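User: My instructor asked us to take a sequence, write out its structure as tokens, and then describe one feature of it. I'm not sure where to start. Here is the sequence I was given:
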Amino acid sequence: MQEDQVGIEELGRVKRMTVKRKREAVTRLLRGEDLELVSRSLGTTAATLTKWREAFLYGGEAALKERPGDDREEQIKRLESKLGQMTMDNELLREKIESIENGRPFVGRRSRQ
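Assistant: Let's start with the prediction itself. The structure tokens for your sequence are:
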């Protein structure tokens, strides 16, 4: 058995294809190697190889859409959190003001000291 036939059955079990082996198979296809030849050498179907190639290209396309070093998403999440906290604080202050204006006794919180 040849070393490059990594998908061929060994003792009745199909050897699992690692990410590295899948990447190498896709690279062979992208360099122009014939789909059927790669399929036969790896012992996998042409449909499987085509699926791997499409997933590989889609992942590469998605990576190109991202902006490296752009921390805007992180900053937006931090600011949204801060806005939420401030909104809650404002609601509590409004309740306190309303209770004071209505003549109800104001009950302050006890210190945790």
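For the description part of your assignment, you could build on this observation: Residues 9 and 95 are 72 Å apart (CA to CA). Try explaining in your own words what that tells you about the chain.
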